[in-house]
From TrEMBL:
Domain Metallo-beta-lactamase: 38-255
Superkingdom in the source lineage: Bacteria
Signal peptide extent: none
A Pfam family that the UniProt record links to this protein: Lactamase_B
InterPro entries: B_lactamase-like_C, Metallo-B-lactamas, RibonucZ/Hydroxyglut_hydro, Sec-metab_biosynth-thioest, WH-like_DNA-bd_sf
Name the record gives this protein: MBL fold metallo-hydrolase
């Protein structure tokens, strides 16, 4: 944990139980089957029921935990509305089931809904071709490509059904919950149109994955937009959030503990990506590199196949950013893109 941040809570609630973090705002903590082993969900009192922010991973274990939580965490009160911050399956995975169970509408941004639909509908072949086309051009070897391509549409496996067509929210919109006004702030880079929710009266931000206390969210390039620059989008949207919100904001992140120190954390995240860009450029100054060649520069740990997918996306993202800034140039050799410092 950063020593510059303040953590009002020292440990999360037990799985399926709630802890109050502010008037009318409660913290749920659900497990995830990854190295990032948990997600925080947020229950907001809403009349005789609840508004839920994010839903948990699309697995049977999560659904079983939810069933137990209906009486414990929810006190038998219904979920009246589901707000989804973004498309990742640990956030939207149970939205369809919960929406059906409670007859509750889902609210999310247009960009996240569009990507959710596209990813869920893609065939296994389309996903495999996307991996081969994008990562192959950036230097990933045939054995690794075959492993990733052989996984098929992993998104649909944990998102077998879509939630109902959502109520669309956008930057600057306000959502009234139990008489309180929550304003929508949009983050980009980690997701196309990530919704964060801010309550002005007590400086409370539900940040999703946009601002996390101990890690930087993955910034990945997708196969249908191979030249996008999520690093610049992420940093620019963080700086906009810093300018809009006060330093004493209590941040409720999707992973890790709630914290105060929003401005410092944003400064640290922006500095981290500046350092990654400098390291990548310096490496490309030594010899022409593909995104695959750059992995040991950006990631100091061994990567399994799941982590490799995210790491390749992030390596491409940082090289795309350097290219957009004119700090590297590209050369294509034998079907692969090499990057050379300018």
């Amino acid at each position: 944990m950063s020593s510059a941040l303040q953590y009002p809570f020292t440990e999360p609630p037990a799985a399926g139980h709630r802890v109050q973090v502010a008037p009318g705002v409660y913290w749920l903590h659900f497990p995830l089957p990854f190295s990032l082993d948990h997600i925080n969900l947020w229950l907001l009192e809403d009349g005789d029921g609840w508004t839920l922010v994010d839903t948990g991973f699309g697995s049977r274990a999560t659904r079983d935990l939810w069933r137990a939580a209906f009486d414990s965490a929810l006190d038998g009160r219904p979920i009246r509305r589901i707000l989804v911050t973004h498309y990742h399956p640990d956030h939207i995975g149970q939205a369809a089931w919960l929406a059906t169970h409670f007859q509750a509408p889902v609210w999310m941004t247009r960009g996240e809904w569009a990507l959710t639909q596209r990813l869920q509908a893609a065939s296994d072949q389309e996903v495999a071709d996307g991996f081969r086309g994008l990562f192959g051009r950036h230097g990933l070897g045939e054995a690794e490509l075959a492993t990733l391509a052989g996984r098929g549409n992993g998104y649909r496996k944990v998102m077998p059904e879509l939630p109902p067509t959502p109520v669309i929210i956008a930057e600057g919109d306000t959502v009234t919950i139990n008489g309180d006004t929550w304003r929508v702030h949009i983050g980009r880079g980690h997701a196309p149109e990530h919704a964060c929710l801010y309550r002005e009266r007590d400086h409370l931000l539900i940040s999703g994955d946009q601002v996390l206390p101990t890690i930087s969210s993955n910034l990945t390039v997708r196969a249908n937009l191979p030249d996008e620059d999520p690093v610049t989008e992420f940093v620019d949207s963080l700086r906009a959030l810093r300018a809009a919100l006060p330093a004493d904001t209590l941040v409720l992140p999707a992973h890790g503990l709630p914290f105060r120190g929003l401005h410092q954390r944003i400064d640290d995240l922006c500095a981290h990506h500046d350092e990654q860009l400098d390291a990548a450029q310096a490496a490309c100054d030594q010899r022409p590199l593909t995104a695959f060649d750059l992995l040991p520069v950006l990631f100091k740990r061994e990567l399994d196949s799941h982590q490799l997918m995210f790491a390749m996306g992030e390596s491409i993202a940082h090289l795309n950013c350097l290219h957009a800034l004119g700090r590297v140039r590209r050369e294509e050799r034998d079907g692969c893109l090499y990057h050379i410092a300018v």
